[in-house]
Please model this.
Amino acid sequence: MLRAPIFGLRRAIIKTSAALLACERYALMGLMYLLTALILINVVTRYSHLPLYWIDESAVYSVVWLTFIGASAMTRLRLDFAVTMLTERLSARDQKITKVVATGMVILFGASLIATCWLWMDPVGLARAGFDARKFAGETFNFLYTERTQTLNWPTWVVYLTLPIFAVSITIHGVANLLEDLELVPRTALKGFQLSEVDGVN
Model:
């Protein structure tokens, strides 16, 4: 009786990971275009002796978002860094165990980062303060929602949203990878950031 719900849960995780990966693909493309445009505008304006100082900050934040989104996508694509000096000398069974342990550590890292972001951003505390950033800062000494960026004058919490987004996405990708490593679902063919549809689950 439990087989159908478990089957559905596994499939949902793989589908969610696929949807995230597709979104990350478009986000990376957009950010790359944006970063290129910002750099070109920066070069032109500086040579014209009319520098736009907010461009530098925009480029920095674009790189930050690119880094975290790219790291999440690389995790699902299994393009993250690995040291194989030891594992390549192990038996096939031990290599599989090592891979499962490594994937489990990715999930643990992602879950820990989710908990850290929850404590740091404290959405419950902000709601209790009536979403009043100054009242929240006065009660908790957490000034996340009152600070603004230097030149763009954006709320800093908007920029920092990349952290919880990264934490959630890398955790979902990690769970999808773990299901494949444990052979609970067929390994998904990855083609150009697109996941082929999973037709069956063991």
